[in-house]
What does this fold into?
Amino acid sequence: MAHLTYAEAGVVGLIQGITELFPVSSLGHNVLLPALVGGQWAKDLNVSAPESPYLAYIVGLHVATALAMILYFWRDWARIIAAFFSSFRQILSPAPGTERWEFQTTDQQLAWMIVLATIPVGIAGLALEHLFRVAFSKPIPTALFLFANGLILLAGERVRRRRAGVEAQQLAADSRLAAERHTAAVTAGGSGPGSAARHSSGQRALKQQEAGMAVQADRRLVRLGYPNAIVIGSLQILALLPGISRDGVVMVGGMFRGLTRLDAARFSFLLSAPVILAAGMLKVPDLTGPLAHGIHGQVLFGSMLSFVGAYLALRFLMRYLSNVNRTLTPFAIYSLCVGLGAAIYLSVR
It folds into this structure.
C-alpha cells in the first residue's frame, strides 16, 4: 500500500478545503499536484491507482469540507431541514384547496429543490465515478479540463456583465433592507445598560441582518422552479471530470438561468453540501478499514486542515461576491494559466 506522509496529508488537506469552495476544482488540483511535484509524491498520491488509499483519503476529506459548509450555513440548514420534514404533512394530508405537492413556504420549496437537484449527480456519481476516474484522472487530461473550467467561468462573467444593472439593484435593495433591520434591532435593544449590552445588541442585529438577507435570497431562488433547479443541479455531473469545478459550473449555470452571481453562489453551496457529504461518507469505511492502515493520524490531520481551509474560503467568497465590482475573472485566469501551463510542462517534461 502506498505511504502517506503528514506533509503530503497536510498540503492536500488544505488545498482540498480551499479549492473545493473556490471555483477551480479540488479534484483537479489533487491530481495535478503530485504529477507536478513528482518523485515520491507522484507515487504516494496516485488517484487512478487500483484501490488507491489516496483516492479514499481525498474523497474522505469531503466530510470535513461539507461539515465546514454546513457550519457556515447552519441557520439556513436548520430552516431547510425543518421545512423538509414539515412538508410531509402537506404531502400526506394536503390543505383544503391545495395540491399534494403544492408547498406553502419558501423553505419547503427550497428543500425539495435541493433534493430533486441532487438526484441526477447522485446517480451519475454511483454509476460513473470509477469510469471517470480511470479514464480521465490523468495529469494531462486534468490540466486540459482545468483550462476548460477557466473558459466556463469567463462565459459566466460575460452573462453577468449583461445583467450588471440588475445585480447592482438587487445588492442595493438587500443593503437597504439590512440597514433597516439593523437600525430596528439596535433601537429595540438600545435600552440595555453598559457597553456589553450594546455589543450584544449589535451582534444580534448583525445575525438578524444576515438571516434576513438569506431569506430574501431564498425567495428569489425558489422562483427558478423545480425544472430549472434540476437542470442546474445536473451540471454537477461535469465535476466528475477532474479540473471542472462543481461550484463553478453550478454558479455559471445559475447565472445563465437568470440568477445574480451571489444568489447563484448561494444555491451552488447549498447544492454542494449534501453531495460532498454523501461522497465523503461513502469513503469512510475505506478510511477506517485495511485500505487506510497506518495513515489514520494523517487522515485526521488533513481533515482538520481541510475543515479550516473550507470554512475560511467560504467566508472569503461570500464577502468577495457580495461586492458588485468583483468578478470570477481572477479564478478564470488562474484556471487558464495553471491548466495550460501544467499541460505544456507535463507534455515536454
Q: What stands out?
A: The radius of gyration is 22 Å. The chain has 14 helices and no strands.
